[in-house]
Amino acid sequence: MIESMVGSLNWLAKFIIPGLLVGIPLYAMAAKKVKVYEVFVVGAKDGFTIAVRIIPYLVAILVAIGMFRASGALDVLLTLLAPLLNFIGFPPENLPLAMMRPLSGSGSLGLLTDVVNEYGPDSLQAKIGATMYGSSETTFYVLAVYFGSVGVIRSRHAIPAGLFADAVGAISAVYICHWLLV
Amino acid sequence: MLNYIWFGMMAIAVIVGMFTGRIEAVTQAAIDMARLSVEIAIGLIGIMALWLGIMKIAEESGLIRIIARALRPITVRLFPDVPPDHPAMGSIVLNMSANMLGLGNAATPLGLKAMEELQALNPNKDTASNAMVMFLAINTSSVQLILPATVVALMGAVSSEIFITTILATLCSTIAAIIAVKFLEKRKRFAYAPAADSTGGREHD
């Protein structure tokens, strides 16, 4: 049953974007007589300015993350954190992925691929990893893009709250998979 | 806080890089990522323009207001500082729906539109408002109904099991995000304050 549900959801998802692209102008024309082409162009004009505005914020965040990853500092951090995480029963195979997830999308996808290749998609390690990957976002990148687009530089509690949520997400991925899939 | 994290990541990278003999890789990463940042931003222009254009039509036709009104009971609790019928609420709801459905390409432009509208309500333009932090936190921990295509490709037939566990895990992280934001926004350390004050700028990071 779940399989067919996932199948139909993914099938439905294919129609959402084309549906919106046609549906919204259709409603606007039919219900409100909006001059859709003219209005579209006015709105689209902001695309360039916003995309260009985020460049300095992206450079700052991605350069720092890139340097951090390239240095191997993540491995050092993993060794330091290992005793604590072993204590709460966090599987060591999924630890690099959990740490990488808020930093880098491509990096964490690479780590998930490693886990799947090493243990196979049927393994609990791979299932926990995929759950972690799917249930969380690249917090630092999103912060840089979203706050950068409006020029906000003082992020206040955004990072502690975001990282706390990432940690809760990763830990609950472990427990939920143990609870449902074992 | 971002000041310390940003500098800390680079400083640690250089120190660790010296010990691990990867200092050249660190340098290369800095240059590559600077280039990649611009590529990402330039790549966003077209998609941004497309969705911002469609959003403008949705706004003119009153659709955004209708959507905002429909989810009012939830949004007013999460964003008490935003007027319930404000267009920001409509953009927020649309961005969250796009995230839930795994429409990453549409979610970013919709989210940036929401940010722009939240910024219009924000008196200190360089400081994140409570509503902005809440929006960002929900966004990064967002509930996902559709698995990312990459996960489906990797996991194959096992994907349907991951579907349930992912929804439950995102639910946990979203609830944690909301509680953390509501709790932290009242702390003095993260107070919403104008630039010049006497705390030595500790909470301004």
Task: Report on this structure.
The complex is a heterodimer of chains A (182) and B (205). Chain A has two domains: 44 residues, no CATH class; 136 residues, no CATH class. Helix content of chain A is 81%, strand content 0%. Chain A has ten helices and no strands. Chain B has 205 residues and is mainly α. Chain B has one domain. The chains are: A mainly alpha (182), B mainly alpha (205). The interface between A and B is large, with 100 and 113 residues.
Index terms:
heterodimer; A: mainly alpha; 10 helices; 81% helix; globular; B: 205 residues; mainly alpha; 72% helix
Write a concise synopsis of the structure shown:
The complex is a heterodimer of chains A (182) and B (205). Chain A has 182 residues and is mainly alpha-helical.
Spans of chain B of 5+ residues with little confidence (pLDDT < 50)? 196-205
> CA-to-CA gap between the ends of chain A?
19 Å
Number of helices in the DSSP assignment of chain B: 9
**Count the strands of chain B?**
0
Q: Name the shape of chain A in a single word.
A: globular
**Largest interface, and how many residues on either side?**
A-B, 100 and 113 residues
Query: For this entry, what is the oligomeric state of its chains?
Result: heterodimer
The number of distinct structural domains of chain B comes to: 1
End-to-end distance of chain B, in Å? 4 Å
Please state roughly what percent of the residues of chain B sit in beta strands, choosing from under 5%, 5-15%, 15-25%, 25-35%, 35-45% or over 45%. under 5%
Q: Give the SSE string of chain A.
A: HHHHHHHHHH
Largest sheet of chain A: none
Count of individual helical segments of chain A: 10
Q: What is the N-to-C succession of helices and strands of chain B?
A: HHHHHHHHH
Q: Helix- and strand-based class of chain B? A: mainly alpha
Helix content of chain B: over 70%
Describe the global form of chain B.
globular
Structural class of chain A: mainly alpha
What percent strand of chain A? under 5%
